[in-house]
Amino acid sequence: MSLPRVHVIGLGPAGPDLVTAGAMQLIATIPRQFLRTERHPAAQVMPQAQWFDRLYESASSMPQVYQSICEALVSAACEEHDLAVQIGAVGEVLYAVPGSPVVAEHTVELLLSDPRVEVVIHPALSFLDLTWARLGVDPVELGVRLIDGHRFAVEAAGQRGPLLVGQCDNSFTLSDIKLSLDDPPSSPVVVLQRLGLPDEKIFSVDWSDLDREVIPDHLTSIWIPEFAAPVAAEFIKLQELLTRLRAEDPWKAEQTHDSLKRYLLEETYEVFEAIDSYDSESGSGATELCSELGDLLYQVVFHSAIASEAGWFTLSDVALAIHDKLLARHQALEQALGAQLGSADVAQVVALWESSKVQEQSRSSALDQIPAGLPALARALKVAKRATGIEGYVAPVDSAGLDFAELDFSELDFSELGTALLKLVDLAQERGFDPEEALRQATDQRIEQLRTVERAGSENP
C-alpha cells in the first residue's frame, strides 16, 4: 500500500539564482506547497506556499517548533493522499527549506523517521559550499565539524576545532555560545553573514565581543579555527586520566564490574550523607557534596572504561542511552498531555512515566525489573508506586486508618510485623512520603538522643 509522499527541496544559500532547476520544476508541478520560513531571499519563488513562521513565535521551544512543522506536513500529505487514492494516484506535498535539506535540518530528520509518510529528498546547494569558497578551506582535509548553534554546548563537547557553527540567528544563541566555554579561543573567530547576497559580510571578532559586535540573523554562521582546549575539557581529562591509570596501576587494571560493586554502593551512600549536610540557601556543605558527586561520577567512568576495553560500550554510549531514554519518555508525556503537560497533576505524570517505562523495557508486568537487592523499605515503596499503574488496582483502604493501639506487640509474630511494615509503606505512598528517608532521619534523631544520654553518663559517673 502506497504512503502519502512529502517532497523536500532546498532553496539554496542565497537568492533565486541558486535554486536548482529540479526544485523549480517541482514548484511548478506540485500544487500544495510549504515553506519552513518566509525569511529567506529565495522565498519569492514559492508565492503560493504556506509558511511556518508563526510557530517560531507561539511554540515554547525549538524542538516543539520542529515537531509541529512535521505534524502539519504529515497531516497535509495524508489529506492529499485521501483524495488522490480515489483516482489511483499518490497524494503529494512539497516542503522547501533554506539551503540544503540534508544539512542541519531537524524537521527533515523528523520526517524521515516518521512511518506515516514517504519522504523524497531532492539535492540542493548548501550554505556550506559558499562558506568553504569564502574561507578558502578544504573541509575534508581539515576535518571540519558542523555544529548547530542552538545545541552548541552539547555538540561541541570534546571538540578542538575547526568548527563551523550555523543557526546563529539571535543574540541569545550567541550569548549561550560565548558563555559555554570556560577557556575560549585566544584568536578571533570569523563571522559570515548573508553569503551570496549583495549585503554579504565577512569579518573577524574577539570571542568576548561575540554577542556585542555581531547583529545576528537567520543567515549568520561562525568559523572557529581552533579552541584553546577541548569543550568539556575537564570531562575529557577525567577519561584520559582513568585510561592512563588503568594502564599503569595494577590494582585499577585488575578491577571488574563485580569487584567495583561495593565501591559504587559506598559512594552512593556518601552522596546521601553529603546531601543531608548540604544547605541550599547558605551553600554550606556544597564543597563536600561536589566532591562526593565527583567520587560517584568516577565510578560511572570506571565501569564505562572497563566495558569500552571489552568492546561493549563507551562513556559516550552511556550518556547517549540516558539522553535518548529521557527524551523518549518526555515525548510520550507530550503526546499524551499536549499543551496541558506543564500544568498536569504530578500523580498523572508519574503514572504516564511508569507506563512509558513498561513499554520501553518490554515488561510483561508492571512489577518486572524491581531490583531484589534494594533495601526492603525502598523495594516495598517501588512496588506500591508501580501498583498505581496497574489497571483495576485499588489502594488499600485501611492503611490510612492504621491503629497501632490495636496491635499487641508482645504477641506480634514475624509475618504480622511484615504486614504492619507494609501497611506503613502504603500509607507513605498515599501521602507522598519516602519511608526509607523517614526511617533514616528518625534513626539519626535517635542516634543524637543516645549520644546525649551517653555524654550525660560520662559527665556524671
UniProtKB/TrEMBL annotation:
It comes from freshwater metagenome. This is Unannotated protein. Residues 5-209 form the Tetrapyrrole methylase domain. GO terms for biological process: dATP catabolic process; dGTP catabolic process; dTTP catabolic process; dUTP catabolic process; TTP catabolic process; UTP catabolic process. Residues 255-331 form the NTP pyrophosphohydrolase MazG-like domain. Pfam families: MazG, TP_methylase. InterPro entries: 4pyrrol_Mease, 4pyrrol_Methylase_sf, MazG-like_dom, NTP-PPase_MazG-like_N, NTP_PyrPHydrolase_MazG, YabN_N. SUPFAM superfamilies: all-alpha NTP pyrophosphatases, Tetrapyrrole methylase. GO terms for molecular function: methyltransferase activity; nucleoside triphosphate diphosphatase activity.
